[in-house]
Amino acid sequence: MVSHKEFAGAGKKPGLQVWRIENLDLKPVPQALHGSFFTGDAYLLLFTTSAPSYNVHMWLGDSCSQDESGAAAIFSTQLDDFLGGGPVQYRELQNSESNTFLGYFKSGIKYQRGRGLRRLLHLKGRRAIRATEVDMSWNSFNKGDCFIVDLGQHIYQWCGSECNRFERLKASELGIDIRDNERNGRAKLHMVEEGEEPAEIIEISDASGSMKVSAVAPSSPFKQAMLSPEECYILDNGVDKNIFVWKGPKANKAERRAAMSAGQQFIKDKGYSNKTQIQVLPAGAETTLFKQFFFNWMDKDETTGPTKAYTIGRIAKVDQVPFDASSLHSNKAMAAQHGMVDDGKGKVQIWRVEGEKVPVDPSAYGHFYGGDCYLILYSYRLGGREQHIIYTWQGLKCTQDELAASAFLTVKLDDSMGGSPVQVRVTQGQEPPHLMSLFQGKPMIIHSGGTSRKGGQSSSSATRAVEEVSASSLNTNDVFVLKSPNALYVWRGVGASDEEMEAAKYVVDFLGGSAKHVSEGSEPGDFWAALGGKKDYQTSKSLQNMVNAPRLFGCSNKTGRLTVEEVPGDFTQSDLATDDVMLLDTWDQIFLWVGNEANAEEKTGAPKIAKDYVESDPSGRRGLPITTIKQGAEPPTFTGWFQAWESKMWEMDPLDRIRARFQR
């Protein structure tokens, strides 16, 4: 195996390593210059996590030579071999980099044309900042953007009269990064407004492989079973300028080594743009974006099964929420992971939607009917202040009029409380853990259809739904209650808990009758007969759920139309643009964060985008709860997803805060 001497220290500790291709050899780039790329060069980057796992990136500037890009490809393959074939490989092109790549450089990336001491950088982007070197001339400026005039000892941030506050904020971060890293803190940083330029700027700016490829499936969502471990596959997403090459763990070595070149040839054969990104993914290192092209992607040892709350009318799954709520106030990250703001012992009020709000008798709390919509107002105290959550629960069999009325009444209730409550839209079968905890030890019972209104159906509708039950819904980690016309069963999976068995007693009492207890592996024939026959079901004994990295998006119409852009890398509180609506995807739940300065179009358009985002997800996450939060009223279930959340951050203007860092 050929190994370059630079690889001796590659991947030895977490972090980013960068090499530039110079004279067809590797030259390390100092950490202070990470994020600066010469457009005539090619680069090799390695990002190592603490696991460890590896990302290898080959970056090609617009003007780099064929020899340099070829050398970068060779070194990328050698580095992959050196690290045992485990890295995820990326082919990055100037101005079309992946979000993974952009996330390494939170202050932005800089494209440099030459190595002179003076340069003019044009900044573009709201989430991923790109600073491109342009001609040092007034013809390069425009009113809508920010520019960095870098004169060496003095760095000027020039702001056009039409650029917005968030762009100014990001430009300031880049200016600080240049001063602190490239100049080791020795340069002076200045803020300049259009029309107020000092003489220094005015004077300067007036100067001048071979793999056979065959189609497997025409369109997503794909099935994970299509990926044979003996093969390599190309997932074609060229319409969005990226493709993926998946390497099966048992594919022959020649195919695995040729993965990147096969991707490049595929792009040429398809006639795709030369800006198309390529990601090479070894089995087990699939990215979130790749997984979302598959229906219900399963990682190794992941458990699956019915949704968290259970339904009368199919198989009743008993799912308790074992959780130490006393740790919530001191551990916001745990609160976010579990979706629990407290232990559920606050005040609960429930109304059924019938054109107006109709109070539900407290004795019926915990029972929900698929033909109805409900408003649940939960009030609790946190940090000495009263907080509120409005859950809008929508049954799968309610009418469009009821859906519309539930949305209207939610807004009306929110307005009556000064706009302070957190709003959570819940679709039947996707109930979050905190909602299920409100009924104090009693399971939440969902009737698959019918209504609780006077003269409406009750659980009789569940009897008609019994024919829909299937053994494939069972899960070895859970307890199920099955009612047939002739018998009542409590089935306990091998991995089920005692708490779930206790909850099953409540369900049996509600259904009435004497239950037969059945253990997994000892089922009688009439049990399988009641389920329509024995079928395969989830038998993994692992209780560890798949961990999906949270993703943050900004919804903005600053360009004239409402667009959505992902925040690259590990996001922070400062990535929440106060003049936008932000979408946080934590996999089990969607949050919409409304900035105080967001405009009306963003506020009205973002909820539809969130709904479409979930319903169009190929992984099948339809119906997730969508929680709307206002700036300054964030609950711990939201703030826990951000490192070092600062509750008083917005008491001071973010621009004033960052301008204070200009002075050293």
UniProtKB/TrEMBL annotation:
<dbReference type="GO" id="GO:0005737">
    <property type="term" value="C:cytoplasm"/>
</dbReference>
<feature type="domain" description="Gelsolin-like">
    <location>
        <begin position="356"/>
        <end position="436"/>
    </location>
</feature>
<dbReference type="GO" id="GO:0008154">
    <property type="term" value="P:actin polymerization or depolymerization"/>
</dbReference>
<dbReference type="GO" id="GO:0051015">
    <property type="term" value="F:actin filament binding"/>
</dbReference>
<feature type="domain" description="Gelsolin-like">
    <location>
        <begin position="467"/>
        <end position="504"/>
    </location>
</feature>
<dbReference type="InterPro" id="IPR007122">
    <property type="entry name" value="Villin/Gelsolin"/>
</dbReference>
<dbReference type="GO" id="GO:0051016">
    <property type="term" value="P:barbed-end actin filament capping"/>
</dbReference>
<protein>
    <submittedName>
        <fullName>Scinderin like b</fullName>
    </submittedName>
</protein>
<dbReference type="Pfam" id="PF00626">
    <property type="entry name" value="Gelsolin"/>
</dbReference>
<feature type="domain" description="Gelsolin-like">
    <location>
        <begin position="129"/>
        <end position="202"/>
    </location>
</feature>
<keyword id="KW-0677">Repeat</keyword>
<dbReference type="GO" id="GO:0030031">
    <property type="term" value="P:cell projection assembly"/>
</dbReference>
<keyword id="KW-0963">Cytoplasm</keyword>
<feature type="domain" description="Gelsolin-like">
    <location>
        <begin position="26"/>
        <end position="102"/>
    </location>
</feature>
<dbReference type="InterPro" id="IPR036180">
    <property type="entry name" value="Gelsolin-like_dom_sf"/>
</dbReference>
<dbReference type="GO" id="GO:0015629">
    <property type="term" value="C:actin cytoskeleton"/>
</dbReference>
<feature type="domain" description="Gelsolin-like">
    <location>
        <begin position="216"/>
        <end position="290"/>
    </location>
</feature>
<keyword id="KW-0106">Calcium</keyword>
<dbReference type="GO" id="GO:0005546">
    <property type="term" value="F:phosphatidylinositol-4,5-bisphosphate binding"/>
</dbReference>
<comment type="similarity">
    <text>Belongs to the villin/gelsolin family.</text>
</comment>
<keyword id="KW-0117">Actin capping</keyword>
<keyword id="KW-0206">Cytoskeleton</keyword>
<dbReference type="GO" id="GO:0051014">
    <property type="term" value="P:actin filament severing"/>
</dbReference>
<dbReference type="InterPro" id="IPR007123">
    <property type="entry name" value="Gelsolin-like_dom"/>
</dbReference>
<keyword id="KW-0009">Actin-binding</keyword>
<dbReference type="GO" id="GO:0007417">
    <property type="term" value="P:central nervous system development"/>
</dbReference>
<feature type="domain" description="Gelsolin-like">
    <location>
        <begin position="564"/>
        <end position="638"/>
    </location>
</feature>
<dbReference type="InterPro" id="IPR029006">
    <property type="entry name" value="ADF-H/Gelsolin-like_dom_sf"/>
</dbReference>
